[in-house]
Amino acid sequence: VPWGQNTASFVAEEERRARANDREYNEKFQYASNCIKTSKYNILTFLPVNLFEQFQEVANTYFLFLLILQLIPQVSSLSWFTTIVPLVLVLAITAVKDATDDYFRHKSDDQVNNRQSQVLIDGSLQQEQWMNVRVGDIIKLENNQFVAADLLLLSSSEPHGLCYIETAELDGETNMKVRQAIPVTSELGDISRLAKFDGEVVCEPPNNKLDKFSGTLHWKGSKFPLSNQNTLLRGCVLRNTEWCFGLVVFAGPDTKLMQNSGRTKFKRTSIDRLMNTLVLWIFGFLVCMGVILAIGNAIWEHEVGTRFQVYLPWDEAVDSAFFSGFLSFWSYIIILNTVVPISLYVSVEVIRLGHSYFINWDRKMFCAKRQTPAEARTTTLNEELGQVEYVFSDKTGTLTQNIMVFNKCSISGRSYGDVFDVLGHRAELGERLQPVDFSFNPLADKKFLFWDPTLLEAVKMGDPHTHEFFRLLSLCHTVMSEEKNEGELYYKAQSPDEGALVTAARNFGFVFRSRTPKTITVHEMGTAVTYQLLAILDFNNIRKRMSVIVRNPEGRIRLYCKGADTILLDRLRPSANELLNTTADHLNEYAGEGLRTLVLAYKDLDEEYYEEWAQRRLQASLAPDSREDRLASVYEEVENDMVVRPRGLGRGRGRGPGLGRVCDLRPPPPAHPPPAAHIGVGISGQEGIQAVLASDYSFSQFKFLQRLLLVHGRWSYLRMCKFLCYFFYKNFAFTMVHFWFGFFCGFSAQTVYDQYFITLYNIVYTSLPVLAMGVFDQDVPEQRSMEHPKLYEPGQLNLLFNKREFFVCIAQGIYTSVLMFFIPYGVFAEAAQDNGAQLADYQSFAVTVATSLVIVVSVQIGLDTGYWTAINHFFIWGSLAAYFAILFAMHSDGLFSMFPNQFRFVGNAQSTLAQPAVWLTIALTTVVCILPVLAFRFLKLSLKPDLSDTVRYSQLVRKKRAQHRCARRPGRGSSRRSGYAFAHQEGFGELIMSGKNMRLSSLALAGFAPRSGSGWIESLRRKRSDSPGSPGGGREGRGAVLPRHCPSGFS
How many CA atoms lie within 13 A of 188 on its CB side? Predict the structure, then answer.
């Protein structure tokens, strides 16, 4: 249930009843108020609720459990702040982010709830805040105002109760839509009549279907069907309409806008899922280490401990070796917990946030024409972009600019649109061909171009099939026309394809001029003809067609239909197979050229049949349940059994239809991205931003998909993999030293390092360098990523971070920890200071091991970094400097004088690091830890380099050659006089070389079909250069689905 939802009504409501001007009647149903609440917290609930939500995370709960253990003196050998400092830091960062987000939600809620609206109360209009509007109230809206709630349109300033709305906040579409009041209420325009209106609406309960509404108005003993065309939804804006009145049906959380604002499904990447599994394995490994050390403690206590208490007495005597081992187990769980530090999860989110900003800031994915940048609408899926195996597009329109052009048509078996030369060869469209001259038509759109003059000749000669073809285009649509000046027509179409088809009919002499709810006026070859509009059988994604039924001035009733060929051809009577076969050949030809096709058909209806059918349609529209199914059945009946005749027109029901195909470059409106898609990519095209609103990533041209995947996706995957490998390595190298030390300290759960070093290791000394690598690292430049799509394959095959790579990192970390402990241990066993004193004290050993560790992991990240920036240098050298600064500060006189109980070892760091033996030990440890890594990488580069290595090497060779040529360039000798005066424009040679000033013989739009595995990469490699007309994401392989706009996504 959405926040603020009336739970009782949400569960129990089966139908909605709302009576106009009767708050007392409506209140007994306890409908939700119009106040919305999207915020989650208030001042009192923020801290407890937010902490409760954060501790739903297993990691946070785990570290809270460790903190509780550290408060038990018999268990913990570490101070409580070693766990609470990083835990509080993580909780605080998340809490600040959540509080900031909720603050803006509060501001948004207050802004919306306090908007003003005119409400009819006690016979007069009064200003009311939106939050005080109730179901059953009558509201007056004025031009450019937002709709306060879901309303039933009662009347408007426009004739026939029409009004225009913009639904961008609902579905992203910026084109205007038409809504109409039912005739019985359209005359209720004055306040006195509206105040007496007592109609009752009975309709479906609240739901999230934006394009569906089913209800009935009960008034004066009659019932009137209501549909989506009679409603105004919250979030819409009234446009080009002076005023309108509406009855509130749904308010607040019951409105369709709020019903669609539920929480989206949280998507996890494959690395997230793998990391969760690996973390569980690490927990298991941690428990195993704890058990081994606990058994060792029990044995040691039994064999030695009872005689050793004189030297190390218990605060309270522990007589049982088993109990001692039990306590030791929990102590070691606390000490060794850093194998999975809490900073891991925060660091991952910071890296992903940085990758998202890189996508948003990429100027090469910015569309200057629309001023639209690429946008990462999620921060959790960036590395998944580098592992896509399949790309699915909802339609070919996604791969194009979605600019609709009437291109070709087939009418009564003849194809129009191609131009042929004198030899009968198809001519190429270009400079030498002149477009058709439409000057005979004063209402023609001058921007419309068509190249085949034979179609216009057929229209002028009065060919009946051609006339019926364009008559259908001018009548069967939902376009609105506006005539600002005499002869200046502007069409407002809900989709670009309808606009293109109506514009084509307009230029060929069939000009759609105006419409009312009951009529359509078309100028046919200069003569105004008004048709009576009897019914509109609207389009939807299931029917895939739309129809209109009109009566012409002679009284003949005709149904015009247009739709998908897969749907309409099955509804034609096969009385003209030859014509159908010819038309099917044309269809295949058009499809082969990459055009989108549409089938047009019509048939005559006799008066008696239409009256019977209209009555059945009325009954279906008044049905209280299954209204849509009943209407679909009625529509199916009348749109069936259409007949194709090759010549002439007949009369009577079911006879005399004509057939045609019209092509445009775009399919019907798309749907939102499939919820099963791993990544949804929306393309903001010609139809608004539906896909953008439902997608994870968005941009304005399809061609940017290549850069999103091959550059940003691949880099994000590479960086995250390198980050995780290094992170696990450095923490195992850090933690496992405690494990080895346990065998030399009687398994007493003592730590090698100072407790402040344990606290700061992951949040100060090693956090920033690995973050810099995770955010900025590159293996090859972006140009090489685009030139070598094969570089993308490691992500598809999970080669850079998998279980094998994880165990390699762990093994390297354990190897480093062994050397980190035993080399200093071996040195300190026999070493002495310069003054002859024993060097092997615990504090000096701890400083030596800690310093060796920081230097080794810093050298390792330097080797892992493939792309150095000033930030990388600053973080690595700065972290080393911070370590030594803090180390000397903690062993200084100043801190000891202020906190004598906390900083007891005055001068230890200075004394230890002043010994040459210590630095020789650190150097030896560093070399022995790093040398195998260097040897392995050298052998790999020499014997088995991968493509990334090869590309980097070629880049280095190319760079050295360029430097060598520059170095050998001869110096300039003495100057000479010149009479150069050649008139030449800069850049013209580049223009010629680019070929942009030359007429192309053809433009071939390459297909982009999904292929299994990495086959599509080969296709991209073969077509690296962008094609001129191709702007621009499922799986049981990783995938991305991509809708158009385009409205919805790597859908």
Answer: 26
